[in-house]
Amino acid sequence: MDRRAALAEMSAFAHALPRDPSPGAADLLAFRRGMRALAGAVTVLATRLGDERWGLTATAICSLSAEPPRLLACINQRGASFAAFRESRLLSVNVLAENQFAVAERFAGLDGSAEDRFAAGVWRDGAVEGLPVLADAAATFECRVPELIDAGTHAILIGDILTVRSAPEARPLLYCDGRFTGVADEIFDPRYGFQF
Fold it and tell me: Per-residue pLDDT tens for 131-144?
């Protein structure tokens, strides 16, 4: 890539973090082992670019601000969907319910299917420019993306939340230690010495 093309590509980002590791940074294997212990909610991020829908499974999502309502999502820049998110500047975050592991596998490319990813689950057009929204998700957020931050292998998308829908009775799907799981019914709280 020549310098002009590299500058044009970087101009799509509002900010860029240094790509070189900090002095004394942990090695990649230790980083991956540590991250396997961090349970995360499983989501499908989706966007629309013209007539095409794009999506991927992600766990690197969190709230950023309540006033104004914002979230952030981290997406691998080498993934097939990233260019569509960068160009559309629109994002739906679909928090999967514990019975939707097949949707998670399809959007992660783990089910071996060559079929359209959106064939898994029931999808509808959302309120924000027809963003794809999973009809029976535990929660959905439709966002505009005013800011992208280049953060090495991944980009951080800052989403201004425009609509929220939630299903309070739904239990979330989680990902931990390389597998999908759910929330346990019983939690032991040592402060009280009993399970509830």
Answer: 999 999 999 999 99
In order of start, what are the domains of the chain with their CATH numbers?
A: 40-183 (2.30.110.10)
CA–CA separation, 148 and 155 (whole Å): 7
Output the CA–CA distances (angstroms, integers) from residue 39 to 29, 91, 96, in the order listed.
18, 23, 14
Q: What's the CA gap between 100 and 56, in Å, rounded? A: 14
Size (the chain), residues: 196
**Where would I find the H helices in the chain?**
3-10, 28-35, 82-88, 101-108
Task: Report the run of H or E that residue 89 belongs to, with start and end.
Answer: none
Q: Convert 119-151 to b/e letters by CB count within 10 Å (16 or more is b).
A: ebbebeebebeebbbbeebbbbbbbbbeebbbb
Instruction: Please name the residue that has the structure tokens 């709230």.
Output: 63
For 38-68, write each residue's pLDDT tens digit.
678 999 999 999 999 999 999 999 999 999 9
Tokens of 98: 């514990």
